[in-house]
UniProtKB/TrEMBL annotation:
Gene that this polypeptide is encoded by: LOC111155146
Species the sequence originates in: Enhydra lutris kenyoni (northern sea otter)
UniProt record similarity statement: Belongs to the very long-chain fatty acids dehydratase HACD family.
Name of the molecule in the record: Very-long-chain (3R)-3-hydroxyacyl-CoA dehydratase
Organism phylogeny: Eukaryota, Metazoa, Chordata, Craniata, Vertebrata
Stretch list, region Disordered: 1-33
Pathway: Lipid metabolism; fatty acid biosynthesis
EC numbers: 4.2.1.134
Catalytic activity: (3R)-hydroxyhexadecanoyl-CoA = (2E)-hexadecenoyl-CoA + H2O; a very-long-chain (3R)-3-hydroxyacyl-CoA = a very-long-chain (2E)-enoyl-CoA + H2O
Subcellular location: Endoplasmic reticulum membrane; Membrane
Keywords, alphabetical: Endoplasmic reticulum, Fatty acid biosynthesis, Fatty acid metabolism, Lipid biosynthesis, Lipid metabolism, Lyase, Membrane, Transmembrane, Transmembrane helix
Length: 276
């Protein structure tokens, strides 16, 4: 799920921070940054994604003002949410360190498309990269889209708001980093607001899956029972429960790692300010 993807993402960030720190000590190998065409592509991609999530945010606000209620706002942004969240399949959450695009680490960070991994622009596993970015797409399509009864749940709005704020900040961060003009406010927001947004998003995701369980069991959604010619069975209900259980080891690891990253990044920025 999204927690798993975010965990993999922050591990990528952690690798970026660790490698950058080693680079400052002269013990890490230097990596080449992207060429001008790759940089231009990444800038355009991140600008488009920033704009897309801003559209979702504006859609939520407009729907709320029109209805006078926060209930069932999902329907007002369902199409752009599916489009831009599915669009994340183009990218790798764990490639922050590969482009070295963040000067505060002594390097810079960005996100690379899965295609870049496939053609060898960066050393990465396409399978692993695909797994990382599929988690949120799974929640959107295999849970929220497939179990229509949960679409009016407040928990859906909870994770949508958390995702929207997170992605606006994150894509803005990458855009300005690529342009070598990263405002401190955006960097601060990326490494601070997760303190609230991550628990908020995870809570919404878990509650949405939990709300879907009775409908999945009743309808036998995506389940395969024996006997059949393939001699294979699959219980989607049990699978979703396993997904929920997986949050127990994953989320604390993600959360405390991000806290560690926050101390490292923001303290490093403060040190630079003192020298300046």
């Amino acid at each position: 799920m999204a927690a798993a993807a975010a965990t993999a993402a922050t591990k990528g960030n952690a690798g970026g921070g660790a490698r950058a720190g080693a680079g400052e000590a002269g013990s890490a190998r230097k990596k080449k940054g992207p060429g001008p065409l790759a940089t231009a592509y990444l800038v355009i991609y991140n600008v488009v994604m920033t704009a897309g999530w801003l559209v979702i945010a504006v859609g939520l606000v407009r729907a709320y003002l029109a209805k006078g209620s926060y209930h069932s706002l999902y329907y007002s942004i369902e199409k752009p949410l599916k489009f831009f969240q599915t669009g994340a399949l183009l990218e790798s959450f764990g490639q922050d360190s590969s482009l070295q695009l963040q000067r505060s680490f002594g390097a810079k960070t960005s996100r690379l498309p899965i295609l870049h991994c496939a053609v060898g622009i960066v050393p990465s596993s396409v399978v692993l990269t695909s797994f990382q970015v599929m988690s949120r797409v799974f929640l959107i399509w295999a849970v929220t889209h497939s179990v229509k009864e949960v679409q009016s749940e407040d928990s859906v709005l909870l994770y949508v708001i958390a995702w929207t704020m997170t992605e606006i900040i994150r894509y803005s961060f990458y855009t300005f980093s690529l342009l070598n003009h990263l405002p401190y406010l955006i960097k601060w927001a990326r490494y601070t607001l997760f303190i609230v947004l991550y628990p908020m998003g995870v809570s919404g995701e878990l509650l949405t899956i939990y709300a879907a369980l009775p409908f999945v069991r009743q309808a036998g959604l995506y389940s395969i029972s024996l006997p059949n010619k393939y001699n294979f069975s699959f219980d989607y209900y049990a699978f979703l429960i396993l997904i929920m259980i997986s949050y127990i080891p994953i989320f604390p690891q993600l959360y405390f790692h991000m806290i560690h990253q926050r101390r490292k990044v923001l303290s490093h920025t403060e040190e630079h300010k003192k020298f300046d």
